[in-house]
Design goal:
alpha+beta; globular
Length: 64
C-alpha cells in the first residue's frame, strides 16, 4: 500500500511578498530571481518534487 502524498503543492517560492498572501503550502521569499531558482531547485531535490514556473514571479514545487 502506497501512503505517500501525490498531486499536491509542496511549496511556493517568490520574490514578491504581495503575490502570495495566503497559502496552505509553505512560502519561501527570495531576494532575486537567481536565489528564487536556487531555493526552488534545492526544495525540489529534498521533497522529490517538480518545479513549475507560474510566470508571475512565483515558482511552485509540486509532487506528482
Amino acid at each position: 500500500m502506497d501512503t505517500s502524498l501525490k498531486e499536491v503543492i509542496l511549496a511556493v517560492v517568490t520574490t514578491d511578498k504581495e503575490r502570495v498572501l495566503h497559502s496552505a503550502a509553505p512560502v519561501f521569499y527570495a531576494r532575486d530571481r537567481k536565489e528564487m531558482e536556487r531555493v526552488a531547485l534545492l526544495l525540489s531535490k529534498i521533497t522529490l518534487g517538480m518545479v513549475h514556473d507560474l510566470e508571475n514571479g512565483c515558482l511552485v514545487i509540486v509532487k506528482h
